[in-house]
Amino acid sequence: MKGDTPLNSTMSIGQARKLVEQLKIEASMCRIKVSKAAADLMAYCDAHACEDPLITPVPTSENPFREKKFFCALL
After folding, report:
1. Alpha carbon distance 43, 36 (integer Å)
2. Which of 27, 33, 53, 63 is deepest in the core (most CB within 10 A)?
3. Does a structural domain hold residue 75?
4. What is the rounded distance in angstroms from the CA atom of residue 56 to the CA atom of residue 59?
């Protein structure tokens, strides 16, 4: 068609500008290798494992979410 822009005909100029800005932001990001990111994540998890209540359970005396045992007082 004669009136089509070089971009996709359904994409407006404003959308194209937003896309270009987003691509510029992504291109300027500092990137690291996946192996280094995984090693850093594992080191962080190892260093903070003692603080994780899912790995080291909270003592029942300090657990505010423990099940309270109610006994029937009426018989």
Report:
1. 10
2. 63
3. no
4. 9
User: Residue 37: which CATH number?
Assistant: 4.10.260.10
**pTM of this structure:** 0.47
Which residue type occupies 10?
Answer: T
Q: What is the pLDDT of residue 1?
A: 47
CA atoms within 13 A on the CB side of 66: 11
Q: What are the tens digits of pLDDT across the range 3-46?
A: 555 555 677 999 999 999 999 999 999 999 999 999 999 999 99
Q: Are 50 and 56 in contact (CB under 8 A)?
A: yes
Domain that holds residue 49: 31-58
Residue 52: inside a domain, yes or no? yes
Give the 3-state secondary structure of residue 38: helix
